[in-house]
Amino acid sequence: MSVLINFKICDNAKECGGVNVCPTGALSWDEENETIKIDNSKCICCGACERSCPIGAIKVAFSDEEYNKIAKEIEDDPRTVKDLFVDRYGAAPLSEFFMIDEDEIEDKLTEGLVLVELYNDDSIECLLKSIPVKEITKDLPSDTLFYKAESKEENLPVLLIYKNKELLGKIEGYYTVDQKEELLEKINDIVKE
Ligand code: SF4
Ligand code: SF4
After folding, report:
1. What number does the ligand 1 atom closest to the CA of 7 have?
2. In a 10 Å sphere around its CB, with 0-12 CB exposed, 13-18 middle and 19+ buried, how is residue 114 labelled?
3. Does domain 83-192 have CATH number 3.40.30.10?
4. What is the pLDDT, as a whole number, of residue 85?
């Protein structure tokens, strides 16, 4: 009875949903080594962590056989951290080079929609609390661009929404997966204005 994490697709964040929901401390954040730590002697196989991970990186095994099977699947998983960005941040509507400097924002603006998430070191974990950008942009035109820019502003993250090079509006603070619909509504309201 154990839990496994596929670190090929997990961004190993302090804000990990699995760490937050684990009732026994089987999953915890190792501050010194800056990594999620697994202590399977404490795991009660409740499954809460598996349900909390938005990209399916956490798996719970109920037997040694299942553990070995999942471990092998993780070993054979061809995905890499680069694919994580595709999964998490959405490939099609987004520029591959979406990490930019704050002073590059003006240069990146186009006649279409451009979303820019401002972040800093304290807000970088699990973008908008793990809502994949491809979900955030799913109702927007397919040529919508998305960038992340490190910022010195306070109260981050902030999502800036530009159209035709004009700032239409901004959304401040974290949104959890449970608040996804609320976030999408806010984005759509700003875009429709
Ligand atoms: S929620 Fe999933 S992807 Fe995020 S840190 Fe935890 S295990 Fe990794
Ligand atoms: S299955 Fe339950 S006890 Fe085990 S690591 Fe996940 S949340 Fe913790």
Report:
1. 8
2. buried
3. yes
4. 56
